[in-house]
Design a protein that fits this description.
By secondary structure, the chain is α/β, with parallel strands linked by helices. The chain is elongated and about 120 Å long.
Length: 1109
């Protein structure tokens, strides 16, 4: 086992120069010449690359657990020293269950593949599927004309014959009492009736662990089992030798202490599990759009019912089984069900949609025919457990720390055991009254056994204190707390490791729309023909022809909807923010949405594509003419235009006026407006494909377009975004804007948000277009990536290339995304942040954290929480190691010198409870402070124990050891107990040591809150949990000393001795303040240990290579 790297005590060994050059993508020639980098920049890049080099000899050195292999995860678990595996590995990935889960997935996928293969076979006409009998006629069920079993069979078998026999989609519409245009009634009674007949869109989930299970797992600790056995032996021997009246105290006291530890541990773990359970419920609760009563409404996936009409767009998850009503270029990724990555196209020949699949392309509308357990997806999800086990890099490193400390503690415990047994059997161990405990040939066997049991109990208890079993679990505790609080800050954590990795983020690549801006869009400027309509809704200047074509293009070329209530209420416009803005503008121009859509027929749709940045539709009008409408990025659509519609409704050549329109676009962009162009062209009906297959493959003509309008859409910057960017900058996190918008718009917004400090910075390569960046070679992209601040007109692939280039330079990259095509970048980034409002389900599933309000300020809060996780763990480590060192040194020195230990088994168990469970609760749940954002990002390979922590730890531990050892050896005289009996004086002295030791920990808990600040009380009264735990610990300590003396082997202390104990604890406060004035070197202490090891390793490599030669 190796402990020479990132177990937190020692940092990772650096690779050779050639290894670094290879990993950073620098060839040997470029490295020699320093091409593209100055010396300082190159050194920084190499140093950062060191952080990403994993040491294969150290099982605890895992930089990222996000995509770690099972073998890597299995290796560190086998290397860890663990006393209670069921508790230690509770929130890690259960590798055995993962294999079982994958096996179940394969079984169900195989079923789906068989059905699909049979269907394709049948459609190919090679043979007819023989079912043994014809499709049974529909059977009424409740108020509906078809039973749930028949729908389930049709969906499961993809039975087109059954669908046709039921009358197709129109027949199902009648039998399910729905409407293909307006959906089901939103009436609650109807919803309830549908759920009763066809089931709810939920599936049975396994119940969480009960509290009794947590009690059982807490008791699985090997040392607690040994202590329980020892307590039973001690109880039996005590009753035998001293009688039941006095003899039961020793054994019972240990047993009660063990029970207290188990109960407190179980309560803490149970609370954590409930928090994770609540967060998992939030993750599953997908919100989607449904048509009900003619109105598009947002609803939970759990509220979907059979008969619902659901519009599908790119990136959506199919929420239930259903049948396609209509669609254009609709394609699904069915890999979640079939295991195949092949994209499956859906049309009237293949109309069945499976729940859980993702929309890869196109648009469509579906009729829900199966929900919940009546779907293949429901069966799959019900059959597999949804354990959220996942280890984090910090958790793995802390297991390394715990293993290292545990081995040291185990060695100390064995030493104490050997010394105490040797002293006992050689007659050097005496009772409090001075009598020898063991005399060979005279001491009874039961008495000797009782003495041995007590010695073993002390040694085992030292192991309990020494092995910091709660240290890795503190990560889970602080993550559970942080995730719950982050929900209030509008961030839903999907992957635990992202929460802590965010604290190491050095750059954030943010979208513009909806993240830096409000996503509340309105058309404030328009250029129709050569007329600028600044009022944006003034239709008086528009020619009838221009208005008609504009309204037709806007109404048909959209995924939004306009609902006009019959009651005369305000018009409701739904869709994406851009669609809503343009639809609202057209409504003000007089557009009759429903009338236009009913008068013309859609022939083919080209859904908006983030690569081409435009979308189109071909429609057939009432006079049998064909219009192809396009809408998209202004300069891109303009480039495809050959004419424009003037103020008289006549088409004019655009050749001489293109500069005018480009100027209009630049002017709008300079005012931070998003520019969208609307254009159309006529097309011959004869050239339009007539059969469905050819029509589906038809490519809409996109040349010789006639420009109808250019609209400028205002999307104001979010309030507070400038402050959020400033906070990030001061925290060493560079904010980069990556947007699909015009480069001028991007530059203006970046200046407004503070991402660009001045117009002088707004030049290449600080501000760059996506097409320019992607044209560079891979090496050139790496060289300029760190200089890019704004990227305009970028595609999702450009974002991916930027993320890859930045990561190769050693940056820890967080990236935001909302579209389906953002999924690769979200997956590639160290932390993927998807948008909760505008984000597609594909983007959310590829992300690590969902920003629920799409606000950049919430991203900054996530950074604070990420740093808080790391800081809280460091506070707990400092506190716990101080207790470890002090307790071990005191007991070892006392055992070797006097043959007895001042802290007995019950007292040590109480100290362990303070240090482990209660200490973790108090320190691992500290809320983040502004101070955290005044530091640079935490390096992923930065030692867990910093020089500041070593200083604080050694000062406090040394003070406690010195004071308590002085009390141990000179306490009777110092406390003026010479006139008491020797037994009573020894009891008072040992009680005083125990009391002073515990009070030192209570006072030191305050010091641990602020390792690098003198004022440790700042904000302490706002942390109710911390104050409650400190108060609870102090009150229980008083009870233990004053009222449970027979169990804890203590005696009551006078008020003077209580004051002395408090004074000893109090000194730790000024001592900590003075200690923080002592400067510490910047080089981590671990470096002084790792350098000799590195030299030895290099020598070993050199000698082995020379032998090979």
């Amino acid at each position: 086992m190796s402990f020479n790297s990132s177990n937190g005590l020692l940092s990772t060994s650096a690779p050779t120069m050639s290894e670094r050059d290879l990993e950073s993508g620098i060839t040997s020639d470029a490295a020699a010449a320093g091409k593209g980098f100055d010396d300082e920049e190159k050194k920084k890049m190499v140093d950062e690359e060191d952080d990403d080099v994993e040491d294969e000899t150290d099982p605890f050195d895992i930089a990222q657990t996000k995509n770690a292999s099972h073998n890597t995860l299995r290796r560190w678990r086998q290397a860890a020293l663990v006393l209670n595996a069921s508790r230690r590995f509770r929130y890690t990935l259960d590798l055995k269950k993962e294999e079982e889960k994958e096996q179940r997935r394969r079984t169900i996928r195989a079923h789906a593949q068989v059905i699909r293969a049979a269907l394709l076979f049948k459609l190919a006409g090679e043979r007819q599927m023989v079912s043994g009998s014809s499709v049974a006629p529909p059977t009424p069920s409740g108020d509906f004309d078809i039973a749930v079993e028949q729908l389930s069979t049709m969906n499961r078998d993809h039975n087109v014959e059954a669908l046709q026999q039921y009358g197709g989609v129109r027949g199902l519409e009648r039998m399910l009492k729905t409407n293909l245009e307006t959906g089901v009634s939103p009436d609650e009674a109807d919803m309830l009736n549908r759920k009763n007949v066809f089931g709810a869109n939920t599936y049975p989930r396994r119940k969480g662990r009960s509290f009794l299970r947590f009690l059982w797992e807490a008791w699985q600790d090997l040392t607690l089992i040994i202590l329980t056995v020892a307590a039973v032996l001690s109880l039996a021997l005590g009753i035998k030798t001293e009688g039941i009246k006095e003899g039961w105290y020793d054994g019972a006291s240990i047993y009660i202490a063990v029970i207290l530890v188990i109960v407190v541990t179980a309560v803490s773990d149970y609370r954590q599990s409930l928090q994770f359970q609540n967060l998992n419920d939030e993750k599953r609760n997908i919100q989607l759009e449904v048509m009900r009563g003619g109105r598009a409404v947002k609803t939970s996936i759990f509220d979907i019912v059979v008969g619902d009409i659901i519009p599908l767009r790119i990136g959506d998850q199919v929420p239930a089984d259903g049948v396609l009503i209509s669609g254009h270029s609709l394609a699904l990724d069915e890999s979640s069900m079939t295991g195949e990555s092949k994209i499956v196209h859906k049309d009237q020949k293949s109309p069945f949609l499976m729940s859980g699949c993702k929309v890869a392309d196109g648009v469509g509308t579906m009729l829900v025919t199966g929900v919940g357990i009546n779907t293949e997806w429901g069966l799959l999800m019900a059959s597999i457990s949804e354990d959220t086990g996942e280890e984090t890099p910090l958790q793995v490193r802390l297991n390394g720390v715990a293993t290292f400390i545990g081995i040291v503690g185990l060695a100390v415990a064995v030493l104490v055991l050997v010394v105490l047994l040797a002293r006992f059997f050689t007659g050097h161990t005496k009772d409090a009254d001075g009598s020898v405990q063991f005399v060979k040939g005279h001491t009874k066997f039961s008495t000797a056994l009782d003495g041995v049991v007590k010695i073993i109990t002390i040694a085992v208890t030292i192991v309990v204190v020494a092995v910091p079993e709660g240290l890795p679990l503190a990560v889970t505790l602080t993550l559970a707390y942080s995730m719950r609080k982050m929900m209030a800050d509008k961030a839903l954590v999907r992957r635990l490791s992202a929460c802590e990795t965010m604290g190491s983020a050095t750059t954030i690549c943010s979208d513009k729309t909806g993240t830096l801006t409000l996503n509340e869009m309105t058309v404030v400027d328009a250029c129709v023909g050569k007329n600028r309509i600044n009022t944006a809704s003034d239709s008086s200047e528009l020619h009838t022809e221009a208005r008609s074509l504009l309204c037709e293009g806007v109404a048909q070329n959209t995924t939004g909807n306009v609902f006009v209530p019959k009651t005369g209420e305000a018009v409701e416009v739904t869709g994406s923010p851009t669609e809503k803005a343009i639809l609202s503008w057209a409504v003000k121009l007089g557009m009759k949405f429903d009338a236009i859509r009913s008068e013309s027929k859609v022939l083919h749709v080209f859904p908006f594509n983030s690569e081409k940045k435009r979308g189109g539709v071909a429609v057939k009008t009432t006079d049998n003419s064909v219009h192809v409408h396009w809408k998209g990025a202004a300069e891109i659509v303009l480039a495809s235009c050959s004419g424009y519609l003037d103020s008289n409704g006549c088409v004019q050549s655009i050749d001489n006026d293109k500069e005018y329109f480009r100027g209009a676009i630049d002017d709008m962009a300079a005012h931070s407006l998003r520019c969208v162009a609307i254009a159309y062209r006529s097309y011959e009906l004869e050239k339009v494909p007539t059969d469905d297959e050819a029509l589906a493959k038809w490519v809409l003509p996109e040349d010789s377009l006639v420009l109808l309008a250019i609209v400028g859409i205002k999307d104001p910057c979010r309030p507070g975004v400038k402050d959020a960017v400033r906070i990030c900058t001061s925290a060493g996190v560079k904010v980069r804007m990556v947007t699909g918008d015009n480069i001028q718009t991007a530059r203006a917004i970046a200046l407004e948000c503070g991402i660009l400090g001045s117009t002088a910075e707004a030049s290449e390569p600080n501000v760059i277009e996506g097409k320019v960046f992607r044209a560079y070679s891979e090496k050139e992209r790496e060289q300029i990536a760190h200089r890019i601040t704004v990227m305009g007109r970028s595609s999702p692939n450009d974002k991916l290339l930027l993320v890859q280039a930045l990561r190769k330079r050693g940056e820890v990259v967080a990236v935001t995304g909302d579209g389906t095509n953002d999924a690769p970048a979200l997956h590639e980034a160290d932390i993927g942040l998807s948008m909760g409002i505008q984000g597609t389900e594909v983007a959310k599933e590829s992300s690590d954290i969902i920003i629920l309000d799409d606000n950049f300020a919430s991203v900054v809060k996530v950074v604070r929480w990420g740093r808080s996780v790391y800081a809280n763990i460091q506070k707990f480590i400092q506190f716990q190691l101080t207790v470890n060192v002090a307790a071990l040194v005191i007991n070892v020195v006392a055992a070797i010198s006097s043959g007895d230990v001042p802290l007995n088994a019950v007292q040590l168990l109480w100290v362990n409870l303070i240090m482990d469970t209660l200490g973790a609760l108090a320190l691992a749940t500290e809320p983040p402070t502004d101070h955290l954002m005044h530091r640079t990002p935490v390096g992923r390979r930065e030692p867990l124990i910093t020089n500041i922590m070593w200083r604080n730890l050694l000062i406090q531990a040394s003070y406690q050891v010195v004071v308590l050892l002085v009390l141990n050896f000179s306490g009777i005289s110092i406390l003026r107990l010479e006139h008491d009996t020797k037994e009573h004086a020894t009891d008072v002295k040992n009680t005083m040591i125990f009391n002073a030791f515990v009070l030192c920990q209570i006072f030191n808990e305050f010091n641990a809150r602020k390792p690098d600040e003198i004022n440790v009380f700042d904000g302490v009264t706002k942390n109710n949990l911390f104050m409650g735990i400190v108060g609870f610990t102090f009150i229980l300590q008083i009870i233990l000393i004053e009222f449970t003396g027979k169990f804890t082997k203590t005696v009551r202390l006078s008020w003077k001795l209580w004051l002395v104990s408090l004074a000893i604890g109090f000194v730790s406060w000024p001592l900590a303040a003075v200690g923080k004035l002592i400067p510490v070197p910047e080089t981590p202490a671990s470096e002084y240990f790792i350098r000799p090891l590195r030299k030895l390793r290099n020598r070993g490599r050199s000698s082995s290579s020379s032998q090979d030669n």
